[in-house]
Amino acid sequence: MNQNCQKQEWELIAPCHFGLEAVLKREIQDLDLEISRVEDGKVTFRGGGEAVAAANVFLRTTERIFLKVADLHAETFDELFEKTKALPWESFIPPNGKFWVTKANSVKSKLFSPSDIQSIMKKAIVERLKTAYGLTWFPEDGPAYPIRVSFMKDTATIGIDSSGLSLHKRGYRQMTVKAPITETLASALIMLTPWRADRILVDPFCGSGTFPIEAAMMAAGIAPGAKRDFLAEKWTNIISPSCWKQAREKAGDLVKKEIETDIQGYDIDPAALKAARANAKMAGVDHMIHFQQRDVKDLRHPKPFGFLIANPPYGERIGEMEELSGLYRTLGESFSRLDRWSMYLITSYEQAERDIGRKADKNRKVYNGMMKTYFYQFLGPKPERKTARAAMDAGRRF
After folding, report:
1. Quick one: which of 71, 171, 242, 394 could link to 228 by a disulfide (CB 3.0–4.6 Å)?
2. pTM, whole model, 2 decimals?
3. Does residue 144 sit in the same domain as residue 19?
4. Residues 341, 208: one domain?
């Protein structure tokens, strides 16, 4: 750990989609950070400024990084006020810091009004900082320290958001289409497959290109946060600017400038493909992906051992459900013509396996926001290494 960027150590909280905690845990461990706890929808780990910077820049599957302030038990607003006031807020927020409780939620707790929780906690923090700094008024014209609190069974977990914009906003998706999958979810689902950069990947419902772009960024070693800013970059009172400099330098060193891939994205909608191409260019991976207007019934590839990874239509709107059966049946027929391929689909459509004509080898429940979806995994045989390399070398487009 570089001492120039390490001023102190905290517990850090990384939230994720329910059902994908193990993927995030593995990512955090790959950064050589110490895991404290894995719970539904979040992973807690330890680290200082270097960890805050590295987590924001490199983690692909979390939405934000919070500096955990405390867990506290409160059943009345008086209790919440006093216990919040007792916390060392001056260790995080400077005299000119802008601070507010940006979000509060409550599950199975006696304190359940978000607006009241927010108001009480703000007042308590102000009282604490008045005493700590000997001030009666705060300009709040400095860096932002947005606070979040989550009550579960009368215990509140309090954290300060270091990320700002959600980490799924990599900075490349300037154009979008209806029902896009988030970048963080797409990355997590790709990581659940055995796909690697030397294997074929095709998304037959690519939309604005999220699956192919995230796969290409992984293949090229491009850090997801390399092209964006974070709130905590301005927290110079607790995190040295050298932490961010080191993280970005490392991100630059890890980029593979010369890499060959066979990543393809198809869609029937020309507007979606226009968005996908623009987004891929913004991400710096347009040279690695072949986008093409193509109906799923025309899906084909001459080489074996490829991967289909897709977010097909769910049919959530009235009038769409009757169209889904034929669409999934066509997808199943196209998949059956591919030579020894594997297919991975995220969908809430309950009849997917029936219409595809094959039971999935694995089926993982994943929450896409508040929507319960399933990640169906239809597994093909594993190629020998020489076979996989030969398939890449023999030509990828047709």
Report:
1. 171
2. 0.92
3. yes
4. yes
